Amino acid sequence: MFLKPFLKLFKNDQLSAFVGINALFKPFYKLSYLAAAKDDGLFDLLSEQPVVFEKLAETYCKNAKAREALKAWLQLGIRLDFLELSIRGYTLKGLAKKLALPQNDAALALVQEVAGLHYKLISNTPGKLRNGEFWGLEDQDGELIARSSRALEAFQTEAIDRTFPVSKAVSLLEIGCGSGFYIKYIATRNPSLSALGLELQPNVADMARRNIQEWGLQDRVRIEAGDIREKASAEHFDIVTLYNNIYYFPVMERVSLLRHIRKFLKTDGFLLLTTCCQGGNLGIEVLNLWGAATATGGRLPSVEEMIDQLGEAGYQDIQAISLIPGDKFYAFKAHHAGPVSTRDPPAGLFI
């Protein structure tokens, strides 16, 4: 009787475990396949028109055995509803087709980040800790992170819209400028804005320079590679920004970092800092893990902690602005209004 094996599993209290893990397989396979399809160039090959198997084999196969394996891999893509096969060849389908659109590159980069960095982070962190090791910046792909961070673009630009002037001449220092997109965004809105983008990772700084040149902003925007902690405050700015990178700095060093950044502000200038905070969605929990398990970084702050640290660093009129209702992505706007006592930091304002 075909039910007998299932009854045996049920009696041994095994059936629910097998059913439970089986529900997890398909999402894992889907995420892995999408990331591999992008990493290995299939998205680029199929983004415009169908491609026959022979053409794909020219790219991926060195021998007959490889052709067999490629067919099996493409067949899996069909089963996962990411590919379809017709007489014209293979084409992208469903979510894969949507992710191939340029406007969805940030979402696709998130897929790659989760399947790559997040997978390794979750799988390998306990072993690293056991060996007295931590993750490093070299363990992440800086250009990929710059792409995936744009997933927060709509919310990030809302913070910029609410705080930046759009008409008067202002100078901006963006610490951790990534691809340079947010500099482009505000420079486009305010033609009188000039900016310096500072990026820790040289390869990402190179990407930002190329982008600034391509966008025609090289007369108003400079890009430098370097660490803000090692930079002298010879130049002063109306606005300094820290977007989604406070967790790259240890918790115990953040007050001194913020105090150092304050030296780059004009007396009536302000700092705009955005970050995910403690208690957010699962993606934020993984980000918290990355910060905590990185040798040079630290866990995510709580909202109250971030306000306290800004106050201790000498900022005034501190505002905490919720950018995603029901979640923990915040903008903190804090003013440099001259010397203040660090003994009694001002209370923050929640918006």
Task: Explain this structure.
The chain is an alpha/beta fold. It has 14 helices and ten strands. The chain has an eight-stranded mixed beta sheet, sandwiched between helices. Helix 10 links the parallel strand 3 and strand 4 (193-199). Helix 2 crosses helix 7 (105-130). Residues 340-347 have low confidence and may be disordered.
Which helices and strands, and how do they pair?
Elements: H1 4-11, H2 15-39, H3 42-46, H4 53-60, H5 64-79, E1 83-86, E2 89-92, H6 94-99, H7 105-130, H8 142-148, H9 153-163, E3 170-175, H10 181-189, E4 193-199, H11 202-214, E5 221-225, E6 237-243, H12 254-262, E7 265-276, H13 282-292, H14 303-312, E8 316-322, E9 329-335, E10 349-350
Parallel strand pairs: 3-4, 3-6, 4-5, 6-7, 8-10
Antiparallel strand pairs: 1-2, 7-9, 8-9
Helix pairs in contact: 2-7, 7-8
